[in-house]
Amino acid sequence: MSVEDQPVIRISGLSKRFPGVHAVEEVSFDVRAGEIFGLVGPDGAGKTTTLRMLAGVLPPEVGTATVAGFDVTRDPEGAKQHLSYMPQRFGLYEDLTVDENIGFYADLFGVKKAEREQRSRQLLQAAGMSEFRARLAGKLSGGMKQKLGLMCALIHRPKVILLDEPTTGVDPVSRRDFWRILYSLVAEGVAILTSTAYLDEAERCHRVALMHKGKLLFCDTPAKLKARLGKGVLAVIAPDPRRVRDALADSQGISSLVLTGDGVHLVVDDTQRRSAGFSACLRAAGIPFDDIHQVTPTIEDLFVDAVTAGGAA
User: Does some domain include residue 311?
Assistant: First the structure.
């Protein structure tokens, strides 16, 4: 196994309870150097709790977790020397400029001045923020604040970076820039563990763990996850997708339905056999639609079907 394939993050049987809630239940996975690994799921899935345990902020009740070879429970300070944790609300100082914020975190991590200047220029260029170095952080847009937070987290070249829903509420341009920075880190051999509630972002990761109510449903590459659905997906293109969903919700052969931007995805047992029946049903109900055709399954189709139909294994 090459250095790039070595797991830098290892967690096994990790569990955490809060009063009345099993936030994380026996979760296990690993993340290799030069890999973007996504924790994907809705609010309350256990993503933040998992990241906080890895960052040494919360102690796990059961299970083990290591970062860069350091046990996060027995030696959290050793692990922290090799990672950066960017929570949902990163601690930027809004009365400091972009440069001053980066400089503060460089001092915090003990980065030497010469290296700081080179690294800062590199990160600012990658984020498209070179011209905003003198702007107060408090005057930045939400997306630019997130990119600045990432730059501060990366100033000391960590081996591992933990990102808690970094693109939530971020504009499309900043979101694209953010992912471009992450891909550049892959080339540097950084292990990236990022959480997101956006199922489409799972497609950008090398591997994905789908979580729901504290449990890990599936863990694999996006391509293999979609292949394992084992069912067909029909897309109904219609001007009023909600009417389509409500009309077909109780139809035979459908295990789950997902609203999309221009219609509905139906996860079905047999696409060819069911298509004509759904068309007839919609026409009889007087619900307009443009087309029904088979499509390639998405991560969202798999996730919704697993949660709705109990398909997790």
Answer: no
Q: For residues 51 and 266, give the distance between their C-alpha atoms in angstroms, rounded to a whole number.
A: 33
Q: How many CB atoms lie within 10 A of CB 107?
A: 12
Please indicate, yes or no, if residue 141 is contained in any of the structural domains: yes
Mind listing the pLDDT tens digit for each residue in 257-293? 989 889 999 999 999 999 999 999 999 999 999 999 9
CB 126, CB 182: distance < 8 Å: no
* d(C-alpha 201, C-alpha 299), whole Å: 9
Look at residue 306 and tell me if it is in a domain: no
Picking from 240, 245, 306, 309, the residue whose alpha carbon sits closest to that of residue 278 is 245
Phi, psi (deg, nearest 5) at residue 17: -115, 145
Report which of 184, 206, 222 is spatially closest to residue 300, judged by C-alpha positions: 222
**Residue 215, helix vs strand vs coil:** strand
Residue 272 CB coordination number (10 Å):
10
- Calpha distance 242→264 (Å, rounded): 8
The residue among 194, 223, 252 that closes a domain is 223
CA atoms within 13 A on the CB side of 107: 6
Count of beta carbons in the 10 Å neighbourhood of residue 72: 26
258 vs 95: CA distance, rounded Å: 44
Six-digit token string for 59: 């102690």
pLDDT value, residue 26: 96
Q: Which residue is associated with the tokens 């090398």? A: 206
CB-count exposure of residue 59 (10 Å: 0-12, 13-18, 19+): exposed
**CATH number for position 279:** 3.30.70.980
- CATH number of the domain where residue 129 is located: 3.40.50.300
Chain CA centroid to CA 104, Å: 28
* Mean pLDDT across 187-200: 91
Give residue 91's identity as a one-letter amino acid code: G
39 token code pair: 């924790």
* Predicted pLDDT of residue 199: 84
